[in-house]
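Example S7 (structure tokens).
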């Protein structure tokens, strides 16, 4: 549950605000009485102003009347009971726990995902996927000949993104231990209490090493109710792979793309997921977008509003204006006929 706060403003008796419409009428009436000598009715000072023909006196009386109008306006606002509401939002979430298992074997250096190689593009799409999630714990497992947890399940996406960026070729002995990578991810989700637990496994090769068979790892995932999505990364046919020669420098050789799609399909099917093939950067982005849509967190919200009275912020200034008018009318702006 996550609380959120924002504010709103309202009047408890908004119909009283209609009285504000009377103030312009009072002002018009006041101006008319300045031009016509009244017969000593509501505002005798106006008659005085006409008799003594003093522009200074007229300005003084106008100022006093403006104070009265301001006091009346504030009094009306106070009677309408302005209130500030603090709205508390309780967001109830059922997050998804997700482990990404990323192949960092030497073949991920193939540059068939222009403008970069497979590992760079895969890292970028994983980061985009992370940035698109909310309230989900996500972790990272990397594998080659061996596997290890690069980042455990976390809500600290900044830390996770840095760990993804830190993945590089050659950080583990070369090879492709798909079973080990999947088993490590399963082990990380074993103790998770989330209702939905998911593994996204990316590889560009065939399982050729490791102590755990990929199908055995998928059966373990199935027994624990963990869903597995598998992604085969690489174009069909041949792919250019850079080779650094100490004499000739860097050169490219064509390497045949071998992805065990049958095994990856069986892993996904056994664990309730799906297998996808990414042949370029855009198709990999679409795959992650599809998985993102399939594995959405459940979010609901409840709102509670608590109102605080703001009447005093208008009432006391109104009283102040009234008192100021009385004081000025009997001191500085006092007029004796």
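Recovered sequence:
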């Amino acid at each position: 549950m996550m609380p959120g706060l924002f504010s709103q403003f309202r009047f408890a008796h908004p119909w009283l605000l209609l009285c504000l419409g009377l103030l312009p009428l009072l002002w018009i009436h006041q101006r008319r009485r300045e031009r016509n000598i009244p017969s000593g009715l509501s505002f005798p000072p106006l008659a005085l102003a006409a008799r003594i023909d003093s522009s200074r006196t007229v300005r003084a009386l106008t100022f006093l009347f403006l104070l009265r109008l301001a006091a009346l306006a504030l009094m009306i606002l106070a009677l309408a009971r302005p209130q500030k509401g603090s709205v508390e939002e309780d967001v109830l979430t059922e997050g998804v726990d997700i482990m990404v298992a990323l192949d960092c074997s030497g073949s991920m250096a193939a540059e068939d995902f222009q403008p970069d190689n497979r590992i760079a593009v895969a890292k970028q799409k994983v980061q985009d996927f992370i940035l698109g999630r909310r309230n989900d714990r996500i972790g990272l497992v990397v594998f080659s000949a061996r596997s290890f947890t690069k980042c455990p399940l976390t809500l600290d996406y900044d830390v996770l993104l840095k760990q993804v960026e830190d993945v590089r070729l050659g950080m583990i002995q070369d090879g492709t231990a798909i079973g080990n990578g999947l088993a490590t991810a399963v082990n990380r989700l074993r103790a998770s209490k989330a209702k939905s637990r998911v593994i996204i496994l990316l590889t560009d090769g065939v399982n050729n090493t490791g102590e755990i068979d990929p199908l055995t790892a998928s059966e373990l995932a199935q027994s624990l109710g963990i869903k597995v999505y598998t992604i085969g990364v690489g174009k069909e046919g041949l792919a250019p792979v850079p080779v650094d020669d100490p004499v000739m420098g860097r050169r490219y050789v064509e390497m045949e793309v071998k992805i065990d799609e049958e095994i990856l399909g069986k892993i996904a099917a056994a664990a309730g997921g799906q297998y996808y093939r990414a042949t370029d950067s855009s198709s990999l982005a679409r795959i992650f977008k599809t998985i993102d849509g399939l594995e959405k967190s459940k979010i609901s919200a409840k709102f509670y509003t608590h109102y605080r009275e703001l009447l005093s912020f208008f009432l006391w200034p109104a009283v102040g204006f009234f008192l100021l008018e009385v004081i000025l009318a009997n001191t500085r702006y006092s007029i004796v006929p």
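Notes on this example. The first strand starts at residue 2 and ends at 11.
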